[in-house]
Amino acid sequence: MVEVTVDDRSLELPVWILPGHADGSMTIHLGYGRTRTGRVGSGSGFDAYRLRTSRAPWHVAGARIRKIAKHYELASTQLHSNIGLAPGPNEEPGFGVEGVEAERRHLVRVGTLEHFRQEPDFAQHMGHTPPEGLSMYPPWDFPGYAWGLSIDLGACTGCNACVVACQSENNIPIVGKEMVAMGREMHWIRIDRYFEGELEHPHVHHQPVMCMHCEQAPCEVVCPVGATVHSSEGLNDMVYNRCVGTRYCSNNCPYKVRRFNFFKYNDTETPVLELLRNPDVTVRTRGVMEKCTYCVQRINHARIEAEKEERQIRDGEIQTACQQVCPTEAIVFGDVNDPESKVSDAKAKPLAYDILAELGTRPRTSYLAKLRNPNSTLEES
Amino acid sequence: MSKAATKPEFALMAEFRSSRELLHAIEQSQAAGYTQLEAYTPYPIEEVWEALGQHKSKLPLIVLIGGIVGAFTGYLLQYWVSVINYPVNVGGRPLHSWVSFIPVTFETTILFAAGAAVLGMFALNRLPMPYHPVFNVPRFALASRDRYFLAIGSWDPKYDRRATEEFLLGLDPFEVNEVAS
Amino acid sequence: MTAPGKPPIVAPGHTPGSVTDQISSIVLTRMPRWWWAAFGASFALVMMLLYALTKLVFEGTGIWGLNIPVGWGFAIINFVWWIGIGHAGTLISAILLLLRQEWRTSINRFAEAMTLFAVACAGLFPLIHVGRPWLAYWLLPYPNTMDIWPQFRSPLVWDVFAVTTYATVSLLFWYVGLVPDLATLRDRARQRLAKITYGFLSMGWRGSATHWHNYETAYLLLAGLATPLVVSVHTVVSFDFAVGQLPGWHATIFPPYFVAGAIFAGFAMVITLAVPLRTLFDLKDFITIRHLQNMGKVMLATGLIVAYGYVIEIFMAWYSGNWFEEFMILNRIQGPYRMQWYALLLCNVLAPQLLWIKRVRSTPALLFVVAMFVNVGMWLERFVIVVTSLHRDFLPSSWGMYAGTRWDWAIFVGSIGLFLALLFLFIRFLPMISIFEMRTIVPKTQAREPDEVSP
Amino acid sequence: MSQIFKPSTNTLARVSMFGAIFFLAILAWVLVTLNRSSLATRQGIVLQQPVPFSHDHHVAGLGISCLYCHTTVEESSFAGIPPSATCMNCHKLIWNESPMLEPVRESYRTGRPIEWTRVHDLPDFVYFDHSIHVAKGIGCASCHGRVDQMPLMYQAESLQMEWCLECHRAPEMFIRPRTEIYNMEWVSTDQETEGARLIADYRVQSKLSCSVCHR
Amino acid sequence: MSEPTASTHERSFPPPADLDGLQSKAWIAAGIGIAASLAGWFLDPTQFYRSYLVSWIFWLSVAAGCLAILMLHHLSRGAWGLMIRRVLEAAARTLPFLAILFIPIVLGLEETYVWARPEAAADELIQHKAVYLNRTAFVFRTVVYLGVWSFFAYGLSRLSLRQDRTGDATLFRRMQVISAPGLGIYCLLTTFAAVDWLMSLDPHWYSSLFGVYFLGGQGIAALAFVILVALYLAQREPMAGAFNAGHFHDYGKLLLAFVMLWTYFAISQLLIIWSADLPEEITWYLERAHGGWKWVSILLVLFHFLLPFLLLLSSDLKRNAKALGKVALLLLAMRWFDVFWLAAPSFEHGHLSFHWLDLATLVGLGGIWLALFLGQLKTRSLVPVNDPYLVEALDNE
Fold first, then answer.
1. Does residue B65 sit in the same domain as residue B46?
2. How many domains does chain D divide into?
3. Chain B environment of C158 (Cβ under 8 Å)
């Protein structure tokens, strides 16, 4: 921990060093360290209001910083702060390899505009994509709707709105710091952050990852009770009430997007909390697996409405919660069987790629590679 | 163990000290025309049941049938469940995933066959039978230690209480006992 | 019969009568004082296990150290470890019977009992490791009002079939083997309750020629069925891992390599138990140095197959040219769990090489030490397979670390207590060496005729 | 050794073995039956209500349509329980002094809804939508039974998953013309051919995917 | 530690005279086969090299499998192996000659192995493996495999012969001591041999079970061959009186065990790859599951597993030497189909085709090999007369 002193005011704070943060500056978040906000809010974080004055509400100059002999535990869903970068020289062998590995596995694909002009489908050649239809199994038909989703990495700013939207739409429990520190966060959608380039001024890439709804889902095969199976529209259904909680599906999920209720996280006793929840989504109990459903409640609702009117669901009629809130419209959801749909359009772009396609899982969620158009003079300076 | 003398005895039983003596006694008894023989030994001796004319057990056939029934039960159960009753797309695998059905089929085959072996063995041996007249002979306890017994059933057409006892005594047994029924 | 230079499988001077009396007397007389102490200690561990299980059922799987990349931990490690240990019993009994290896006789009974108790311990873990144990019966195919069935493509369902079949067949095999001995105890027991109990359990066994004939056929057939069954059980356990896509789990070598590992671990456990028991119950006449030597050899052979598995795994990871596979091996060697991997190599590969030396194979204490190494090593092997593979898989953003909590340890140690407690009860109430089979081999191994027995 | 058991033990041993098998069979049968009995499903059990409302009297006797009270059944997933005001439309005028109806009047006065005891209660993880079923030609009576013959309401069917699947697997056996949805007495003369035709006409997609009901 | 009793010396087991005739026939077959193969080489060298590889691996499996069974026999000290030990030894001693017969494969390396071709340089994955898959290393390793196997074959043979002469009872212990590491080394080398000769035909594919699968097949090949030789010998003096139903029962049981083992490996590999459906692994199976290859796969299931398995369950059949011989013949034929099935789909990546060169090379190599084998068999007594277990072995029931 450090002690930050501004004039005669000082505050003890933990630090988290991020690549690319401007030299000689620090960012302190306001809004924490409150004492009377109830069960969740009280006593979490540090009260930075003590450092600011009405004269300079957003910037304070002349702060001094001193290391103090105290420790504070931070919990993060992404412990590997240096993804995309080589391990530091002082790191233990075997640690800090996440960065190298993430790069080698071509999870997030980035190119320059120039590169794109020369080779528009460069992203599709970065990893190893097996030929279409290569499988030991006869193909399954999805004659009606076939839901799919596309995420434009170029548009994503990593704002986390999708994470919050998903959380409130789908009754996802808030598990607290201890659980997050143990690696038990419950978010159905997470944002993987990658740094590229030098530690001093890296490029930052964000990649939202949720259930890929693989057509050949490795998770489904291993479930002994059939609690996760495919719907006729290609959704990877998760049936909470059938789940006995073997966690086998999560082990076998290459994207690690499944979340498990290790304890009874949802408070079902407090009556007022009932109003907090979305009535269209089951509140999960202890010992069951959960994950992104492509907001199946919205799909079902739209389908019922369309059926009553005896028409097809219109493109854009269904918006997933994450899509709905995305300020940059990076997320597009729709019927991939419909060649006119926006999502089909996105998936047909040369920038479209699947992550871990070499596993033959055939994900329904795909990405659009990020394009940068660097100004060479600025880059060099 | 003197039971009411009114009841006819079950058998006469001679006790021997070695398996060789027992085998010899079996041969002699058969030569003398006795057919209702049963031998008791402390451990399995192939020559003894061969001498008594038991060659092939029915058990292998029973086990084979058990195994076949098990295999069909296992496979058909899986087929019915996965293809007929509630066909679901599981990870893009075909409904009739015969490759995945091999392990369970194998296990049910073994389970049924082993069950058939054990139940068949008890049935063929007419067990359980906690009461049996031979236990009336106090020295029969040694049949589970180191003594060999030969019994001639009283329902043998050649059986005669006197003559048979004489005959058995002539085989140089350790002792001859009457088995009360 | 006896080849030159081999120690006998029964000490000289024994007759069918003497083996009958000596072995049955263990059951029919009072237990020594140490038995009570040992049973008491293991019973205390069982109580600890029950406490930990209660806590688990009331609070949830979260009391363990599991998290999202590492969804399986101690429970599955222990499951595989225990079921592996179980394998030696059936194998000693069944395969050695088929191969007509008579030295099996004095160790098969208690090895089979060990199998049953190990399977009981193993069976506990899949049941409790699920998030909602009270619904675990959904893995069984039974007609229900939901009209839903188990998903037969899942290795966990295969496991249910494999483990229940294994438990059932092992129990039947063990019981069938016991019937003539139960009759022996019925004939020797003095207390009325004991007589009735053993009489009831022996079903009226008389030892008639007809009985023996069907019995021998049944026993041989059971052995013939049990042998592929044993192989299939650990094969199915290996499928739990191998049918997935996870590097470190998905390897075609897993089935034979797991089976060999299971036999390896099982024989180590038999030695761990046999060495002290033969001293404590004065059974050196029946469990001779020859037995220990042979078990040492089996351990060496299976240990070499396990080592072969390691070598092929590493070679294929490189040869495949698949970076996920290569990284998995590199992570074992250099990653945060490398110490476990090195320890595993020490225990499973290096330590058993001592068994090439005859002195080691013939010295019970040394053999015991090697067996302990293997017990630990095989547990570590499962730890490496389960945890090291899971904690760093495809997406580096989801990597994590895993460590067992005290509840993980309490349940693991408690299961050892359960195993020992069952074993001590077995020793108390049932003959730990097959009496009738000893009667069978004594005339063959002894030059004397059984005639010389005094009445 | 001497004889431990009496000769009769042999019979006893065999009888007890077959007895055990018989016992297990009986046990299995009992469990299966109990699981489907009204003890588990509440099927056929008349529940106590704050006001002894008779569907028999209102539907069969007075000929009030289902829709008069359950107004949202065609638009919403819930059919809707009528507010006390609906009752008071008539009961302002008739039976307006009846002590039996005092809870209704009180509710109307205070605006506190009557706390009816729920008769058809699906588990919380099941999402059933009335509107789509009504729209695709499933009559009220198909699931709720002859409500017009129920003096007091009870659950006519088991509502177990296998019961739902019965129809979802073969909707042609249960579908009826849209005109007959609210007709309690409607019986088809030729369900199979008529059903198949209606399935095509109404573009019925009977979904068996899990997420249709569980989400 | 008893000296061999006089009774073992009473009988001697010289090889029957008509082995010579058989050997001549083998040479004739070899001549015809080789001549046809040479003609084929002129017409279609590529096909020749491919057919030759399959035939060579087939006959090598028999010889090397015999070495493995021999070591297994020494290791288990079982009486079962004594009656066939000389057959096993004679087959194992042909291994150096098989090394010479490997030369054509080296010459045609580019025709058979994709990685040996110049265009492999463009393939990233093959480049990754180039340290391992290159001409020099490949030949070097094959020399090592055959050299080490030959070393064990001749070492054990020599001790066995010395036992005949001196009757030294400690020799069997020495053979056992050699066989223990020998079998381990054998398994490890065979695994790599299987990777080199067969798996690398499709250099993109890999399976860590492959070596074990190949080992299982070798066991079947060797046992089937030994049963046929034993059947032949049992019809002639001096072995006519020595072999009895009990011996064949034992060989039948072993054969059954190996058939089950082979099936076990085959199913395990298929099930694991089928369930995971990883694109890089399934291509190998897809090639073998479509077109004509599908029928070869089914043929293997039916006649390499199902029929022999069911037949061998019967103990009556196993005790009947002639019936067992028929099953052995079937299995030996299926061994060729298995090797063919492992190798040939990787050559053409397409439809199934048999070529007359497959047969010609099989007969040519087979003739040579059989003649060499018979030549080796003739040189010694057909039974190790001074083995301490011989009495037990002779009256095995």
1. no
2. 3
3. 103-104, 107
Query: In this structure, are D72 and D155 located in the same domain?
Result: yes
| Segment C226-281, tens digit of pLDDT | 999 999 999 999 999 999 999 999 999 999 999 999 999 999 999 999 999 888 88
Residues of A in contact with C397 (CB under 8 A): 78, 80, 83, 98, 102, 107, 190, 192, 209
The partner residue sitting opposite C218, judged by closest CB among B104, B117, B174, is B117
State the pLDDT confidence band at E10, using cuts at 50, 70 and 90: low
Residue C83 has pLDDT above 90, yes or no: yes
**Cα(C302)–Cα(C260) distance, rounded to whole angstroms?**
5
Q: C446 pLDDT band (50/70/90 cuts)?
A: low
Closest by CA to B134, choosing from B34, B41, B33, B29, is B41
For chain C, say whether A136 makes contact (Cβ under 8 Å): no
Distance (Å) from the alpha carbon of B157 to chain C's nearest alpha carbon:
21
Q: What is the pLDDT of residues B36-81, one digit of tens each?
A: 999 999 999 999 999 998 888 899 999 999 999 999 999 999 999 9
Contact B12, B152 (CB under 8 A): yes
Task: Give the pLDDT mean for C380-396.
Answer: 94
Q: What rounded mean pLDDT belongs to chain D?
A: 92
Contact B44 C188 (CB under 8 A): no
Structure tokens at E351: 């439809």
Structure confidence at residue C160 (pLDDT): 95
Query: For chain C, what is the domain count?
Result: 1
Q: Name the residue range of residue B93's domain.
A: 59-124
Do C186 and D158 count as a contact with CB atoms less than 8 A apart? Answer: no
Note whether B93 contacts A: Cβ–Cβ < 8 A. Answer: yes
Q: Where are the domains of chain E?
A: 19-390
pLDDT, tens digit (0-9, with 9 covering 90-100), for C148-163: 999 999 999 999 999 9
Q: Pick B129's closest partner by Cβ from D6, D10, D210.
A: D10
**Is there a single domain that holds both residue D88 and residue D185?**
no
Of the three residues D115, D137, D158, the one that is the final residue of a domain is D115
Contact residues on chain B for E277, CB-CB shorter than 8 A: 92
Q: Note whether residue C447 is domain-resident.
A: yes
Residue E369 has pLDDT above 60, yes or no: yes
DSSP chain B: ----TTSPPSEEEEEESSHHHHHHHHHHHHHTT---EEEE-SS--HHHHHHTT----SHHHHHHHHHHHHHHHHHHHHHIIIIIIS--BBTTB-SS-TTTTHHHHHHHHHHHHHHHHHHHHHHHTT------GGGGSGGGGGGGTT-EEEEEETTSTT--HHHHHHHHHTT--SEEEEE--
Q: What's the domain count of chain B?
A: 2
Instruction: Tell me, yes or no, whether D47 lies in a domain.
Output: no
Contact C138, A242 (CB under 8 A): yes
CB–CB contact A287 C61 (8 Å): yes
Asked if C touches A (at least 3 Cβ pairs < 8 angstroms), the answer reads yes
Same domain, A53 and A173: no
Contact E392 C1 (CB under 8 A): yes
pLDDT-derived band at D173 (thresholds 50, 70, 90) equals very high
Same domain, A201 and A336: yes
Question: At CA A365, angle to CA A132 and CA A144, rounded to 5?
Answer: 75
Pairing of the two strands B11-16 and B148-153: antiparallel
Band of residue E116 on the pLDDT scale cut at 50, 70, 90: very high
**Listed range (E75-89, E193-207, E249-263) with the worst mean pLDDT:** E75-89
Q: Report which residue type is found at A301.
A: H
Contact A300 D209 (CB under 8 A): no
Q: Which chains touch A (3 or more CB pairs under 8 A)?
A: B, C, D, E
Q: State the smallest CA–CA distance between residue E295 and chain A in angstroms.
A: 17
Greater model confidence, D207 or E275: E275
CA distance D59 to chain C (A): 32
Cβ separation of C138 and A244 shorter than 8 Å?
yes
